[in-house]
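Recap from last week: sequence in, structure out.
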Amino acid sequence: MSILFQLNLVFQEVFDDPQLVVQADTSPTDLRDWDSVAQVKLVLAIEEAFAIRLTNDELSSIHTVRDFMSAIARQKGSIE
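Predicted structure tokens:
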């Protein structure tokens, strides 16, 4: 299962929208409800789903789905 596919599932859960589809370039400007509270929920859900702990440096540089993908890949030691 690809990182993007898994992230889609997390975004669908956090935003309570089973029809939501995110792409690598999706950012908060693309999703009306992606605010600071949603960002915290996303981080917690992603950390749980991927069994990782994102660092403060990673968190401060996450601005798109691609940024989440890169951080997850680094943490997991896998290719995006």
